[in-house]
Amino acid sequence: MISDILTVMWKERKGLSRQHGSRARALFSIAVPVAVFGIMLPWQEGRGWVEGYWSLITSVFIPMLLVGTIIPESFAGERERHTLSTLLASRLPDRAILLGKIAVAVGYGWGVTLVVLLMGLMIANITAWDGQVVVFTPSIALADIVLSLLLAGIMASLGIFISLRATTVQGATQTLMAATMFPLLLLGVLLTSLASIKVKWVERMMDAIGSADPNKVIAVGIAVLSVICFGLFWAAMARFRRHRLILS
Predict the structure, then answer these.
(1) How big is the CA angle at 151 (ends 38 and 216), to the nearest 5 degrees?
(2) Rounded to the nearest 5°, which phi and psi values hold at 189?
(3) Which of 248, 67, 70, 105 has its CA nearest to residue 167?
(4) Which of 21, 69, 101, 141 could make an SS bond with 136 (beta carbons 3.0 to 4.6 A apart)?
(5) pLDDT tens digit at each of 248 positions of the chain
(6) What is this structure's pTM?
């Protein structure tokens, strides 16, 4: 089983640059988020980038962005290139195919995120150097590592779930972006609307949110994301039906 997963991972890793069209485009797709989150923000914020919660923004957006750009191609791309039937006709087990594709996407998004976080830490120390090295607190460092891993897993599992039935990569990408961006936009609109409502219970609720222990909020968020991640993973596993894909 492990050797089968590694075989799929090798195949998917070889295809990463192809998914972007060329090595130059693949590097450019990484260079932009690296420049913004790994250089510009830490340079501007200095110690504040390390001591505040800026790194959490990096841990949220980079894995979502990077995994979201490659995972729609996982099955929809195979279908477009007419290689899906060849893959499904191989001796590779269903789980090996799914786990191999998810592992490469998660490893890509998570790995780049961790590199960017280390870059940001170095840049922040350089710009705000006062003779003492500043590092993330243990709780923030753990939150960065776990959040980025969970969000990469969520995007990979959801992307696989969508790509299994999508007829084109473009269609899978649009559906994935809508499925991820719409809830975030809705949440932002809801919080903005609640903040503008002058009702006692709303004001008390907003005050409670503002005064909540950040570590507890992060812990609750991680717990919720863990449930979502494992739920989407099992949904993708349940949706994978080799005989249906062969006929599609």
Answers:
(1) 90
(2) -65, -40
(3) 248
(4) 141
(5) 778 787 778 877 776 655 555 566 667 777 888 888 888 888 888 888 887 778 888 899 899 989 998 898 888 888 888 887 777 777 888 888 889 999 999 999 999 999 999 999 999 888 877 778 888 888 889 999 999 999 999 999 999 999 888 888 888 888 888 888 777 677 666 656 655 665 555 455 545 555 666 777 788 889 999 999 999 999 998 888 776 665 55
(6) 0.84
Side chain identity at 147, as an amino acid letter? L
The token pair that represents 130 in the structure block: 């006062």
Distance (Å, rounded) from C-alpha 138 to C-alpha 215?
Answer: 11
Residue 31 host element (H or E): helix 23-33
The residue with tokens 């791309």 is 77
**CA–CA separation, 5 vs 30, rounded Å?**
25
Host domain of residue 114: 2-247
Domain tally, the chain: 1
What are the tokens at 162? 């969508």
